[in-house]
Structures are given as C-alpha cells and as structure tokens.
Design goal:
Chain A: InterPro entries: ABC_transp_permease. Chain A: Keywords: Cell inner membrane, Cell membrane, Hydrolase, Membrane, Transmembrane, Transmembrane helix, Transport. The structure holds 2 protein chains of 2 kinds. By secondary structure, chain A is mainly alpha-helical. Chain A contains 14 helices and no strands. Chain A has helices spanning 13-18, 21-39, 46-71, 79-95, 100-124, 129-148, 158-163, 176-192, 195-205, 207-212, 217-243, 254-264, 276-295, 300-332. The longest helix of chain A has 33 residues, at 300-332. Chain B folds into 2 domains: 48-149 and 287-332, Rossmann fold, CATH 3.40.50; 152-284, Response regulator (Rossmann fold, 3-Layer(aba) Sandwich). Chain B is built from 10 helices and 14 strands. In chain B, the strands form 4 sheets. In chain B, strands 2-1-3-4-5-13 form a 6-stranded parallel beta sheet, with helices on both faces. A 4-stranded parallel beta sheet of chain B has the order 7-6-8-9, with helices on both faces. Classes of the chains: A mainly alpha, B alpha/beta. Chains A and B meet through helix 2, helix 3, helix 13 and helix 14 of A and helix 1 and helix 3 of B.
C-alpha cells in the first residue's frame, strides 16, 4: 500500500519482517535454545522452561508498559522501587489483618498513584523523566523500606503463594503466563493496532509534530506512566507471592534488567522505534542465555559480561546500520540533502 | 533501489555476525563445558556439593567456601561455588533451581531470606538433594541441617571474659553497638549483662551507644564515650564496623593502650590495630572452619550416614566429632580469639 511513498517499504511485508531486528532476536532465542537442547545436560528438561519463565515473569510484565514509555522517548527508572513498595504494602496490610484480595487491590492503587505522580511531573510539569524517576526510585524505595524496616512478612496463605508457582498440566509453563499473555495482547493491540499507539510513536519521533497532528501528548505520557506504575505493582504482588516473602528491598536493581531487555529487543532509547514482540523475545533471550550458562556452571560475572556485550552489540548494530544507510543514501543521491529511510530514524 | 538492497544486505550481515558472535561464545563454553557435562551425568553417584554464598566476591564467604572446598576435596567429591552478585533471595533461587536440576548431592547455602528461598529448597530436597544452611539459616522445615557459627551465649561470654581479663576484672566499661533495634546485637548485649553480674561483679557497664554500623558515626560515638566517661577502662563492640572505627579512633588518641577494646571483628580489618598495640584480642568464629564443617555435614547427609535428626553424630575431618542438636542445628563451637600471635594466619 505505501510501497510507492516510502522507500523503506520497497520490499514485501514478509521480507521486511524477516530482516527486522525483532526477527533477529527471535532467531537468536531459537538458535541458542536448540544449541542448548543438544549440548547442555538438563537444558532439555521442561523444568528449565518452568524456571526460566518463573524467573523472568516480573521482567516480562514490566517490560510491556516500559516499552511504550521508552518509545515516547521517556524512561521510568522507578519501576523496581514500585515493585518493592507494592511488596512491602501487601505484607504490611496482610500482617495487620486485611484480606489478601484487599491488600493486593490497595497495592495496585498505590502503584497507580506512584505512576500518576511520575506522569504528572513529566507530562504536566515538564520535567525530564530521567531526573524525575531517579528521584522517585529513591523515594518509593525509601517508603518501602520504611514500611517494613529490615523485617520480612512471610505468613501468607499457602493457597495464594502456591498459586504463584503452579504449572499448566505437563507443559512446564507456569500458570502466571496466562496473566502475562492477556496483558501482552492488550499492550500489543494498544501499541500496534490503535490510534493511541500511533500517537506513542509520533511522540517518540517528534513531540511537537505529534502535538500539531492532534496527539494529546501530555495525556498520553501521563497514561503510560500510570500503566508502568500499575503493572509494576502487579509484578510486586506476584514477586511477593512467588517467594512468599514481602520485603522493602525486593527486586532492587530490577529496573536496569527491564530496560536492558527492552533495548535488546530493538527499542530505541531515543524513542520512536521498537516493537513489543521484539521486546518479549529480548527478555526471553536474556533468560535463555542465563539459564543455559548457569547449567554449564558459568559464573554470574561471566553471564553478566556476555549479556552486557550482547546489549552493546545490539545498540551498536542499530547505529552502525543507520550510519551506513545514511552514507549510502547520500552517495546514491549525489549531493542532494540526505533523507533517512523511515524505518531508521537517525539520532 | 541499490541503496535498499545494500541496506537489507547490511541488516542480514549484521544479523549473521551477531549470530556468529553468539555461537562463537557458545562454542567456547561447549568446549569448557564438555568435561563438566561428563561429571554431571555421574553426579547421581559421585559426591557433588554446591556452595551458594549470599553473594560472590565477599571475603567472608571466600574464606568459608575455601574451607568447604578443602573438605569436599578431602572426601573425593566435586566442589562448586555459584551465587548471585548481590545478596538478594530471588537471585539465589535461580542457583538453587539449577543445582537441583543437576541433581547435586547437596547444597550448602547462606540464606538471603529465611522464607523466600524455601519453596526452591523444598523442591531441591524432593529431587534428592540434601540441604545444609550455614551462617544464615532458613526456617527449619526447608533444610536438613543448619551449621551455626556460634551460640549467642558463646559470643557474649567470649567478649565479656575477654574485656574482664584485659582490664584486670574491675572498672568501667561501655558497649558500642550497631543499630538500636538490631535483634542479634540486643540479644548479645542482654546476655553480656547477665554474664557481667554473674561472673564479673566489679566490672561495671556504664553506657551503651549505637554507631548504626556506620564507620563515621561509630568513630564519633567512641570519641564521645571517652569524653563522657573519663574513668572508662574498656569498650566492647560486638560489630565488625564498630570495632574497626573504635580502633581507628583509639589508635591516634592519647587513650591508646590505656582503654582496652575488644569485640567482634575480622582479622583483615583489625590487623594493623593489633600490631600497633591498640587492640590485644578480639573474637569471631572462623569462617573457614564453618565452611569445612558445613561440607562434612552435607557429605554425611548425602551418603545417608545421618538424616539431620537430633542426636545424629558425624566426624568432620580435622575438626573432630559433632552432634546434631535440637531443630537440626550443629554448633561450630566457641568463637576464635584473634591476637598478635595468630592473626597472620587468617585472611578474611
């Protein structure tokens, strides 16, 4: 349809999909899984899949709204602190006799308020999200640790905690994946198939242009921060139940793992580019690499080095590609002003 | 058009090179892992003990795990040490799961949370892996044995007897603690008070101050203590941060050598203050012995020699015979005293 308008779309859809960043990440997940399956003892067990998904669930959940936030060119560093706050709150309220359902609901509401506070400061006061969420990272974590101190609340009803680790039949897939899938579908529809989602990309490419073309930039940003707040609180509830332990310091440092996975999945840190399937594959890629290397007895430092290098390579590949195609475009058009293909917004 | 062909070629090339880079990494680990996979298949039969410290790169756990390694190798088993970079329970769970999946004979772990790693440990036990905790325990139902470094009574008594000996069993002393609400500190201080009234009636505890396990606060509180109590003859600091800060203050003050200082400290932190005469003797359990004992307990469980019930006994190499107490607790023994004569033998 748009083949004639945009040079980048000169190839059919299947070919564009096959050569996309998302496809590369998904291919890597498949290649490494297949290699691990035949080379690493115990990697082929369904238990590997179970543990991998259970370990990555919190990151998978938060990566969904985080992707939308990063595509607008903003960032939310306070997510792990909201996880901790939600965990501490569920523990504290439950300890004081409130039912589990009510405690969880209260945690979700607090997550919403935390997100709205971030969103208000970023969208309506106009402060940079990096600065705002570094502040709330400390603020929310401080409140979380203040609520419970150094103690942990652990006396949760076993019905709830057991539920957090149940498996669907003999598949090895944790039941919590259903919750993730539902949220993933909602966020994919929102980002890739709705006017709201197109507005998100527009903001990422140019906030002003988006404003002029009728996107409510402020409201969109506010909503996205509310989404990260609520989903982080949900992840905090899951985290608490999965480990049966509510602590203010739960999930410390998780925000960087989430952002690393989002970037690995092909989202540009400058906004405007990226797709959710790629991000989900990015999270799984980190999970597959870590669990394969752990089973091989590789130490955590080496695992981190490999994932770090992979991340640098993936970011580098985007920049190098943009630069190469920019140079190529200049050459082929002689001295005409360069025009970057739509798919690769140069930074 | 040529631009685009070139571009897609570049994308493909980049994709392939990333894939190659990865398989390159993977290849390397296959080679190093092929010997490991051989031993993993024999794991069900051979003794294979996995140490999981609170975090890697911590000198205390390097010392304890060195003891574990010595013991496992003496028993002819395979020793490995895995663990997270930061001391968080969720990261430990991943390593417990991996060890259980590999059917390790036993896991020896210092728990980052008494409950959060519980379900992972239970699963490991169900798949036949024995579980020994050391240094930090979980709730008793999640492990077979807890190797306790020292009993609160032993810790309190060693420090009280130590300071009494150094000041001639009479005079004023004070305590420099960590945080005012630190559970273990307060338990020890209560026991110290009992020991003082019972065994050392002439030693008078005049003050307890809190340095919050912060170096500067502990340093300042030490200075304040000496000003408020001019007749002070000794200070007990049952925290490694406190004793080091107090020693640093005393070593440059005029009270050096006149006011005795003891407590719980690590040899590496305290070495120079012992050598310059500020501190005569301080105490701590020996982490290397702790790891050594934990490894022997794990091996005894794995071989089926003991089950971890009260009254079971086993031999822990050069440390001698041990008995399992109530709740599956094995006690390492009295704290080790560190002084000028032996401090150079320790590195943690």
């Amino acid at each position: 349809m748009s083949e004639k308008t945009y040079p980048a779309y000169a190839h059919p859809l299947w070919r564009r999909l096959l050569l996309s960043r998302e496809a590369a990440v998904i291919a890597l997940v498949v290649i490494i899984s297949m290699w691990g399956y035949s080379n690493i003892p115990y990697f082929g067990d369904t238990l590997t899949l179970t543990y991998l998904l259970l370990d990555m669930t919190t990151i998978l959940l938060i990566a969904l709204p985080m992707t939308l936030v990063i595509i607008t060119g903003e960032i939310d560093l306070s997510v792990a602190s909201v996880v901790g706050l939600s965990s501490a709150l569920v523990g504290l309220l439950h300890e004081h006799g409130l039912g589990m359902a009510a405690s969880c609901l209260a945690a979700l509401v607090v997550g919403l308020v935390c997100g709205a506070f971030n969103g208000f400061l970023v969208a309506y006061v106009g402060l940079p999200s990096l600065a705002v969420t570094i502040g709330t990272l400390a603020l929310y974590r401080g409140i979380a640790v203040g609520l419970l101190g150094t103690t942990a609340v652990t006396d949760f009803p076993t019905g709830w905690t057991d539920q957090a680790a149940t498996i669907i039949g003999a598949t090895g897939i944790p039941t919590v994946m259903i919750l993730f899938l539902v949220l993933a579908v909602v966020f994919i529809l929102l980002l890739h198939f709705s006017p709201f989602g197109r507005g998100i990309y527009d903001i990422g490419l140019s906030s002003e242009a988006a404003q002029f073309s009728g996107v409510d930039v402020k409201r969109t940003k506010l909503l996205l921060f509310v989404f990260t707040g609520v989903v982080s609180a949900l992840a905090g509830i899951y985290f608490t139940l999965r480990y049966g332990s509510a602590r203010g310091d739960n999930a410390t440092g998780l925000e960087l793992q989430v952002i690393a996975a989002v970037l690995l999945g092909g989202v540009s840190i400058f906004g405007g580019r990226g797709k959710l399937p790629g991000v989900i594959a990015g999270v799984l890629l980190i999970g597959v690499i870590s669990s394969a290397l752990r089973l091989e007895g590789v130490t955590v430092n080496v695992i981190n080095i490999i994932i770090g290098l992979l991340l640098v390579l993936s970011v580098l590949s985007t920049s190098v590609l943009a630069w190469v195609s920019d140079v190529a475009a200049r050459r082929s058009r002689g001295k005409a002003p360069s025009q970057t293909p739509a798919g690769v917004a140069s930074q | 058009m040529p631009t685009l062909t070139r571009r897609s070629a570049m994308v493909a090339a980049a994709g392939v090179s990333v894939a190659l880079a990865l398989t390159g990494c993977s290849k390397a680990s296959t080679d190093s892992g092929s010997s490991g996979s051989g031993s993993a298949t024999n794991a069900a039969k051979a003794l294979n003990i996995v140490f999981i410290p609170k975090n890697l790169g911590n000198p205390y756990f390097d010392a304890s795990d060195a003891g574990g390694k010595k013991a496992v190798e003496a028993l002819g088993g395979t020793y490995s040490q895995v663990g997270p970079q930061t001391a968080s329970p969720d990261a430990q769970v991943q390593y417990i799961n991996t060890a259980a999946q590999q059917h390790a004979s036993a896991i020896v772990i210092s728990a980052n949370d008494p409950k959060a790693i519980g379900s992972a440990l239970t699963q490991a036990k169900q798949s036949g892996t024995k579980v020994v905790t050391f240094d930090s325990d979980t709730d008793p139902q999640y492990r077979d044995i807890f190797v306790n470094q020292a009993s609160p009574d032993g810790i309190a008594k060693a420090q009280v007897d130590g300071i009494a000996k150094q000041i001639g069993d009479s005079g004023e002393i004070a305590i420099l603690s960590a945080a005012a609400n630190a559970t273990n500190q307060n338990a020890w201080i209560a026991l110290m008070k009992e020991d003082l009234t019972k065994d050392h009636p002439n030693v008078k505890l005049v003050d307890t101050v809190y340095g919050n396990d912060d170096d500067q606060t502990s340093f300042d509180k030490t200075a304040a203590l000496l000003q408020t109590h001019p007749n002070l003859k000794g200070i007990i600091s049952p925290t490694t941060v406190g004793i080091a800060a107090a020693a640093r203050y005393l070593s440059t003050s005029k009270e050096k050598g006149k006011v005795a200082l003891t407590g719980l400290g690590t040899p590496n932190q305290m070495r120079k203050y012992v050598k310059d005469g500020t501190v005569k003797e301080f105490y701590l359990w020996n982490p290397t012995d702790l790891g050594y004992l934990a490894a022997y307990a794990a091996a005894a469980l794995a071989k089926g020699e003991i089950t971890g019930k009260e009254g079971d006994s086993f031999t822990a190499g050069t440390l001698g015979d041990y008995k399992v107490g109530a709740d599956g607790v094995v006690l390492l023994g009295d704290p080790t005293a560190f002084n000028a004569a032996n401090i150079d033998k320790f590195d943690f």
